[in-house]
């Protein structure tokens, strides 16, 4: 089996049997789109729905859902898919760290709204919650699955703060 791994801001499209597109999501979203008639599909991975407050640099636009969705749809249509035949699988949008706001919830709402506006039906979704997901999409077959990750994703914890010796001078904050 051929595996194509995508990260934030990336996408992949394939029509090859035996190919899986994979990613790991927290609050990010991946939309898998498939055209069952053409047996072509693709997946994106975006960080936020839209840039906030200022324009994003051109090399960062694909990290935002508004741009990532257009890129994925255009890539599929460029391969002969018809928008009216596309079906979506939606993953991610977890609340990974309390206190960081509703990033995942906003991402889910954006993806659902975008797909509804474009007339693309969601045939499967696994969104929200508190756990990361490993997503595997088989575009030729139009199948996908997500496995919840209950362990940390290998991000090292910060080193604990040490007490300073008493003979170290005072610290002035300004």
Protein architecture, described:
The protein is of the alpha+beta class and 174 residues long. The chain is built from two helices and nine strands, in the order E-E-E-E-E-H-E-H-E-E-E. The longest helix is centred in the middle third of the chain and has 16 residues, at 103-118. The termini are far apart. Residues 153-157 have low confidence and may be disordered.
Short précis:
By secondary structure, this protein is of the alpha+beta class. Helices cover 17% and strands 31% of the residues.
Shape: globular
User: In percent, how helical is the residue content?
Assistant: 10-25%
- Protein structure class: alpha+beta
Strand content: 25-35%
Q: Radius of gyration over alpha carbons? A: 20 Å
- Strand and helix order: EEEEEHEHEEE
Write out the strand line-up for the largest beta sheet, numbering strands in chain order: 2-5-4-6-7
Regions with little confidence, pLDDT below 50 for 5+ residues: 153-157
Distance from first to last alpha carbon = 59 Å
Number of strands: 9
**How would a crystallographer describe the biggest sheet?**
5 strands, mixed
Number of helices: 2
Give the averaged pLDDT, no decimals.
Answer: 85
